[in-house]
Amino acid sequence: MSEVRKAVQKLYNTYPFPPDPLLDEPPPGYNWRWHYQSAYNFCAGMKPSQEKIRILDAGCGTGSGTEYLVLHNPYADIIAIDLSENALATAKKRLEKSGVLANFHGTITFKQLPLETVDTLEENFDFINCVGVLHHLPEPEIGIKALAQKLAVGGLMHIFVYGELGRWEIQLMQKAIAILQGEKKGDYVDGVKVGRQLFANLPENNRLVTKENQRWQWENQRDECFADMYVHPQEVDYNIDTLFDFIAISGLEFIGFSNPDSWELERLMGKNDDLMNRAKNLTPQQRYRLIELLDPDPITHYEFFLAKPPFIRQNWQDDELLKQSYPELNPCMLGWESKSLFNYQFQPITISDDEFIFMQYCNSNQGLTVGDILAQVNFTLDQVRSLIKKQLIMLTP
Q: What stretches of the chain adopt beta strand conformation (E)?
């Protein structure tokens, strides 16, 4: 085992992460990125054809994400891997304590395994979840290539890696703590102590203190979070250009960011026609780069989907195909049956009377096609496409 990997293992054995409390009930709400049907619908524009899938939770930590994968994918066969035996032990306890396994009809297996060695697993996976892991590997390129090899054809991978622009102050504090620790670097308890002393003694208007208070103070009350942020022994941060170079190494297809509203250029300069015209001929990557340069603070990380080609997507521009499809409500929403509800991104929205009526038909379990419903309500195909775009309904061709 490399020295870097040993150091990372030591950190997470000292401070198992994330430190979410173990509950006596299933986790609240939903996370649509870990709900295969909803994630597939977001990426492909339609409902997947199967529920019995294979999922790899690559770097499961203490199991907060694994718990949602079990809850949202009750017929899946799931393998969860991590480097830290202490984190894995907590993950197992989390699932047992919350009761999510009571309604789970698949299988869940935990393995202590470095991510780079997933080729030792026999199966390929329809869905791979890798959140907050690749940027902590000694060589992230080896990690993403290893995962890509285990992704089934047409499969999806959900990835979360750090962004350099929104983490600039974090990087500065990391380096400052390391300097003050000197030979004690690698003693993570001491690192947390030094970091907390720094924040307590720096001037109130200090840039690092201001950013900590604005963005991280609440979560960093817990030493596990503070250690993960400020004394981690290995971290690689990306910008848009280095991110897409990284993705290219995998040989997978970039499907899109899972927070698409943040990557709309119109929100930054849409009021100026000249600027928008200048941006028309930019490639998608250039547009993304422009956005993060103009608004760097929110870009603390990148969260996105990749797919192994060929990956079939449906845009529903064919009227007849749309009429013949079978609609149902997106399972990741909260507050139905009401016109005011939370959508898949957990944002509050209000739907119109016509949308509400159409969605009631979608939820009636009568096996109706879009065409069948349109014959009974005052609704148009373009309005149906609007519901699809807003991720409120899923269609089966």
A: 54-58, 77-82, 107-112, 125-131, 151-162, 253-257, 301-307, 326-329, 340-342, 348-350, 393-396
Q: Provide the 3-class DSSP secondary structure of residue 55.
A: strand
Reported as half-sphere exposure (CB side, CA atoms, 13 A), residue 67 has a value of: 28
pLDDT tens for 349-379 read 999 999 999 999 999 989 999 999 999 999 9
Strand partners, 393: 329
Q: In 103-141, which positions are buried (b, 16+ CB within 10 angstroms) versus exposed (e)?
A: ebebebebeebbbbebeebeeebbbbbbbbbbbbbbebe
Question: What pLDDT is recorded for position 187?
Answer: 98
How far apart CA 109 and CA 306 sit, in angstroms, is 24
Query: Using the 8-state DSSP alphabet, how is residue 238 labeled?
Result: B
Q: How does DSSP classify residue 315?
A: -
Q: How far is CA 187 from CA 182, 183, 337, in A?
A: 10, 9, 53
- The predicted model scores a pTM of 0.96
- Assigned architecture for domain 3-164+237-307: 3-Layer(aba) Sandwich (3.40)
SS3 of the chain: helix, strand, coil, percent, to 5: 50, 15, 35
CB 89 within 8 A of CB 82: no
Kindly list the domain boundaries of the chain, sorted by start residue. Answer: 3-164+237-307, 168-230, 319-396
* Cis bond before residue 25 (omega within 30° of 0): no
Whether the per-residue pLDDT at 1 is higher than 80: the answer is no
